[in-house]
Amino acid sequence: MNISKLTVKSNRYRKNRLTLTVAAVMAALIVLPVFAGSKKQPRQRHVEWKTGANERKADYYYMEAMRQNALGNDDAFFDLLSTAWELDSTDTGPGMTLGYYMMVLGGNSDSVYSKRGYDMVRKHFETHPSDYYGAIFYGMINDRLGNTDESVRVWHTLDSLNPTNPDVQLRYAEALLNVADTASLLKSIDVVNRVQRAEGIDLGLTTHKVRARMSLGDTAGVFAELEEYRLKSPRDPDYYIYTGEVYNAYNMADSARANFDRACSVDSTCGRAFYRRAMYLKDQGDSIGYDRELYKAMLMESLDLDVKLDMLAGFIRDAYTDSLQRPRIERLLDVLVEQNPHEPKVRDLYASYLLALNKPNQ
Asked: In whole angstroms, what is the distance from residue 317 CA to residue 307 CA?
């Protein structure tokens, strides 16, 4: 049973409730790898500095490094940061930043250099575990590297220092879920229950617990978690979509279909529900039903544009040679243009379709 895709975004926690700290660190994790394209190579110079004012000099170099970073001068930033570290290697804050850049520069080609950078980041966490920014940064690095045991240790430390922070709690619960042994899975559920007691029932929290219970083989627990959420939000179409996915994972096709139908009935404007029912029918080999539901979903403004484009591109590939389907295809393309008059991706798809029919001037 594949449960890796059985997750949905929480209404509060992966979206609205994301703290400024986490958002800032995520931005750093996205932006910093750009530096890997620099031609700057690790410097090999060794300088013996005189004792005395080195700490003040290091502060100056560090502040200038930050200024150069803000200006986008990557090479100057790296040189200045390296000098600050050489002047005062006891200051683990700059060392953490430099260490991450060393990890990026080392990449897969220089494991020794990358490991040295990782150790510098880790040193800051070991020295200053209460540095919220630094600890989250280190935790996310380990999450991305797949260091499951270290991730658990970091997020557990953060959780113990910030016991009422739901973002940290959920990171800790996810790390435990990734370890996947029985004790960790049960602990993960306990952590999510702690969030739920403080914040209330949420579909994102429910999906986490469902994934953990599926990994434990606790089928009764899975459906108990789902029922608990249904009693709280009986008209949430996302709940029925997700429950249909769970039944599908258990190869219970009739129950899956019933939940996808229910999602469409509780909110007839929910494009996601009609899209998921269409994909279910396609998987079941019902091409007529698939075409019908796909057409309904495509006409709904609530469905994400990228999903519509993917669906329509697939439909065009399958049906454009059938002259009887062309009016439907062109109707859908016209609707997308009406709904998104300034979206170039829609017009590009329309143009590609016309070119495939040898109608470039239409």
From this structure: 16
